[in-house]
Each structure stands twice: as C-alpha cells, then as structure tokens.
Amino acid sequence: MIGGGTDFKSVPLPVRLCYDRAQVIRLYHVSKVYPPRFAALNDVSLHVQPGEFVFLTGPSGAGKTTLLRLLLGADAASAGQIVIGGRNLARLGRQGITRLRRSTGMVFQDSKLLPGLTVLDNVALPAEAAGASPRDARSKAFALLRDLGLKDLVRRAPPSLSGGEQQRVAFARALVNDPRLLLADEPTGNLDEESAARIVELMRRAHQGGATVVVATHDPALLRSLPGREIALRTGRVVAGDGAPPPE
Fold this sequence. Notes:
alpha/beta
C-alpha cells in the first residue's frame, strides 16, 4: 500500500491526476518507519500549491529524501495520508502509481543514469515508457537536450561525463515528459559553482514553464539563488515553514 495508513485499502481505480487543484500536494500526519524501529518521518503535515517552488531543508538524516520518495510513490508511508493531484495514494493501484511517476519528474542525488545507454537513450527512456514510439522518444529527447545546451553529449556514455554534466542530463530526463511536478534531491550537493549555476537555471526554467517544484537541499547558495518557500525538517519532523494543510 502506497502513501497511507491502515484505514485504506489499495483499490485499482481509473486515475486522473489534477495538478490545478488548490493544493497539488497534501500530507496529513504522515510517518515513515524503517525496520527495526527507525522513524525517518514523524507526524508530518504540509501542503504545496500549484506552481509553487518549495525547498525542503534540514541536516542529513532530517527526512528530506524519505519525503521525496513518498511523494514519488517509491516508498509506502507507515501512517497518515498523502494526496497528490487530488488522489489519495493509498487508494491507487499499480496503474495509478505508474501514472503518478510518469507525470512526476525526479532528479536523484546520484543522477541514476544507466551506464550502458547513451545520454540520448537515457533521456528518451521515460518518454518511451510513457507510450511514445522509440523514434518519437529519441526525437523528443534530442530536441530537449539541444534546447538545454547538451546536444554535444548525446552520443556519450554517462561514465564519461563530469558530475555536473551527469546532473544536467538527469534533469533533461526528468523533464522529457513535461512533468507538472518536479522533485529534486540535493541537485547541487556535489557540484562546483559553475555546474551548480547551470542546475539552478534548469530548475528556474522548469518552474517558469508551469511545474510545481520541490527541492531537498542543505545548500545555502541554492536557497539564495531561487525564490521559494522553505519547509524545514529535523529528525523527521517539520520544525518551520508549514503545518497542517488548511481545509479546502
């Protein structure tokens, strides 16, 4: 079961995610406990509105990555409710979670590019998974890489790229399906100043294009680079920037 407590059953439903609602993301008293008894998140309630840029801040171990994984549907909450695009994740079956992931762009801290594929094929992969033909997916991926100034990398393999180049390609992969929700986990954490500035520009472009953006970071320079609301976490709890979501 994804994203909810024991009061809900996972029932496959026709899924239509609506990112134009008053709140794109709503969490109600969400907790996540990993075996044997490690509480990564504890009673977290928050909301994110359409088109917002939100920073999740806090030291290592605060729960930022865990929260992003719950929003992506990659992990199940141990308690509480998570509503994305108007759908309670606890009530989505496999089809619904798949659709959620296809409408969400995710940039991982370590990029997670597939080393055996070229840059072009890495970026095309999500488009093909979403139903595009291999030819159309590659065409869309090439156009995006060109627009992002990465055209010269299309035939390269990820291991041959610098850390900054890998992270920019990871952003291209996250953006190829025109996501309404973009999640990024420490996207500038291990980058030099020039590479970090390029990542900031990619996030700015995604946000200006209409995406709701949620970024986990402990990088003060990133917080200064982009306007956004800050939600601070510490030891799995929200300590500043948000509380329980207001009623609709």
